[in-house]
Amino acid sequence: MKYFAFIPAVLFLAMSFNGCKKPDEFPLVPFIEFKSIYSEKDAQGFDQKVFVTVSFTDGDGDIGYHSRESGRNDAIFDDPSSPYFNNFIVKTFILKNGSWNSIDTPVSARIPYLTPEGPNKALRGEISREFALPVALVQDTLRYDIFIYDRSLNQSNTITTSTIILNTR
């Protein structure tokens, strides 16, 4: 019975230590890291799509946009001619004759609004994207360069994915 008297004290100490945990702190400029790349094959074993995952941190949590229809974004983020219309920027490279050549494929995208509620806005997370494959691929080696923008127009570092060999026919 006297052991039950210690339970409130132990709970109080546990909650006290938990309350002392410092909130996450990251630089205000987003930082990304490459996590993975893989392809999805069809029933015949041909590659259909590529999936890429990156992790990110951002100190003030101003990652992502509201939907265009909401009217809650700054105009610069909703103008399709703006360089900030997409905030997940992807450049595709194909290996030809031993050199990497940039190819024009529309795989950049808009990250949805991710800012957390509450006083600590610091963000840490992962973004996974599905990329359509360029039409003319047969058996090629690809890689991607990726960076993101936050709503303060800070550009993250640029990461390069590992290479992936694709067989599409």
Structure at a glance:
The protein has 169 residues and is mainly beta. The chain has one domain (24-167): Immunoglobulin-like (Sandwich).
Report on this structure.
It is a single chain. The chain contains 2 helices and 8 strands; from the N terminus they run αββαββββββ. It is mainly beta and 169 residues long. It has one domain (24-167): Sandwich (Immunoglobulin-like), CATH 2.60.40. The strands form 2 sheets. Strands 3, 4, 6, 7 and 8 form a 5-stranded antiparallel β-sheet that branches. Strands 1-2-5 form a 3-stranded antiparallel β-sheet, with no helix packed on it. It is elongated.
Highest CATH level, the class: Mainly Beta
CATH fold name: Immunoglobulin-like
Low confidence ranges? 3-11
Total domain units: 1
Give the structural class. mainly beta
Put simply, the count of helices is 2
Describe the largest sheet. Answer: 5 strands, antiparallel
What is the succession of H and E elements? Answer: HEEHEEEEEE
Please compute the radius of gyration using only Cα atoms.
22 Å
Helix content: 10-25%
Shape: elongated
Distance between the termini: 74 Å
**Overall average pLDDT:** 86
Strand fraction band? 35-45%
Any guess at the CATH architecture? Answer: Sandwich
